[in-house]
Amino acid sequence: MNRMIAARLLRASLVACGAAAVLVVVVDWSGRVVGHGPLEILVPFVAAGLAAVGLGAAQPRIDRLVERLTHHREVTPYSSLAAAAARIRAGALEQALPGLAQVLADGTGAVHAVVWLAVGDRLVGAAEHPPQPPDTGAATAENLGVLLARPDVDHVVPVLEGTVLRAALSITKPGAAITPGDQELVRDVANGAALLLRGVALNAELAERVRRADDLARELRASRQRLARAREVERRRLVMELGNATSVRLAALRDDVRAAGGDLGRVPGDPAEFDSASAQQALARARIALDELLDRFRLIARGVYPAVLRDQGPTAALDEVAADLPRPVRLTGGLGGRLDYEIESGVYYVVAAALGALASGPDAGELLVHLDHADAHVTVRIEDPAAAKGPEDLRAELADESERLVALGGDLTITSTAPGAVELRVRLPDRLEPVVESSVGAELRVP
């Protein structure tokens, strides 16, 4: 026997005993005062009226006594709604929803009752009775159909605002039938608490919007930091490229031009012998150095703004890079179409730098580069069967490019697959977007 049945039996017994006591006292007193006569017929009605008035006045005391003895409080849906409304006025929404769940369980005899709120495009369990441990996560359901199909749900009543689902009430009665009275009670609670549940659902949706706005703000700050790091990496790369191109080559060109100028500047009769052959050799060396310098500047310009990359994509641009390398390169796969320039340039720069680092060693076979685009990510695999540099050296040499990838949300891994062989894997998302749930703004609708 559960507490609800025991409380009802005890309450009925106390009421019956009280009514019987009043009837006995009134009948005994009337027999002495009124005696036998015409008024005697009114005595039972007077006794019943006094019993009703007395029991009505004593009802709160009887309820408190029953609650103290059975540890069960008799509630009705409407008393619970009144208490919930009082809590709403006090601003205690977290107390109002558990009260609704409790009245559902107590009123229907359900072993489990849940108040669900529509948050975004899903239903979230906001309150349940009996309550679950605090460390248990809130239950969720994708939609009303999924909730109805749950094995632990026997009856569901939705709370609608037009065709928009705002909340739902569910009960579970394993081994017992859902009676028409249960259905009516849950429906009355849903109708009576509709305004409350709609308000709470809208508050939950507002909290979800605020949470998403915070996530977007954090992602924006992180994106700005990544872009700042990417700009710094590009600045260091350009400084290094320009330094390598100008320092040695320009110094050698200056010396050759100065030597040629010195030879050509001698006049007849000068004690120093006029050497035209030496001047021609110096000018030839200067011309070669100037050609190399121009080629180097073209490479730098291609690295700063590769026209082929912009016009034809990273595959064609990498083909152009591979043609200038001392080692053969086999390029396979592709991206299956054009992507944002930031993504394509990120792939191009890291692969070009990796090929340059691997091709700088002795010619020991073909380099394999495979590009792929799947699962919203771009991946590149670079294999060197006989690398002159180990993974640690390559990580140090490609540190700037690795930072660039991290700034774009990607990563670079370098592993040793066999003695003397290395494999580089590049992984990069195909879209530069904050990874934040986009369910806010969506609404569950009931056809």
Describe the structure.
This protein has a five-stranded antiparallel beta sheet with strand order 3-2-1-5-4. A five-stranded mixed beta sheet has the order 6-7-8-10-9, covered by helices on one side. α3 runs antiparallel to α4, α6 (180-192) crosses α7 and α10 (314-323) runs parallel beside α11. 58% of the residues lie in helices and 16% in strands. Mean pLDDT is 77; it is low at 435-441. With 447 residues, it is of the alpha+beta class. It contains 13 helices and ten strands.
Q: How would you sum up this structure in a few lines?
A:
One of its GO terms (molecular function) is kinase activity. By secondary structure, the chain is of the alpha+beta class. It has 13 helices and ten strands.
Write the layout of secondary structure elements.
Elements: H1 3-33, H2 43-70, H3 77-90, H4 93-108, E1 112-119, E2 122-129, E3 140-141, H5 144-148, E4 155-161, E5 164-172, H6 180-192, H7 194-264, H8 276-304, H9 307-312, H10 314-323, E6 329-333, H11 341-359, E7 367-374, E8 377-384, H12 391-397, H13 399-407, E9 411-418, E10 421-429
Parallel strand pairs: 6-7
Antiparallel strand pairs: 1-2, 1-5, 2-3, 4-5, 7-8, 8-10, 9-10
Helix pairs in contact: 1-2, 3-4, 4-6, 6-7, 7-8, 7-13, 10-11, 11-13
Annotation keywords:
447 residues; alpha+beta; Beta-Lactamase; 4 domains; five-stranded mixed β-sheet; 10 strands; rod-shaped; kinase activity; kinase; transmembrane
Strand content: 15-25%
The CATH top-level class label of the largest domain: Alpha Beta
CATH topology of the largest domain: Heat Shock Protein 90
Structural class: alpha+beta
- The CATH superfamily of the largest domain turns out to be Histidine kinase-like ATPase, C-terminal domain
Quote the distance from N terminus to C terminus. 43 Å
User: How many strands, what sense, and barrel or not for the largest sheet?
Assistant: 5 strands, antiparallel
Number of domains: 4
N-to-C SSE string, H for helix and E for strand: HHHHEEEHEEHHHHHEHEEHHEE
Spatial sequence of strands, sheet with the most strands: 3-2-1-5-4
Radius of gyration: 43 Å
Which consecutive residue ranges, at least 5 long each, have pLDDT under 50?
Answer: 435-441
In terms of quaternary structure, the protein is: single chain
- The coarse overall form would be rod-shaped
Could you give the count of β-strands? Answer: 10
Overall pLDDT score = 77
Q: Helical element count? A: 13
The helicity comes to 55-70%
Going by CATH, the architecture of the largest domain would be 2-Layer Sandwich
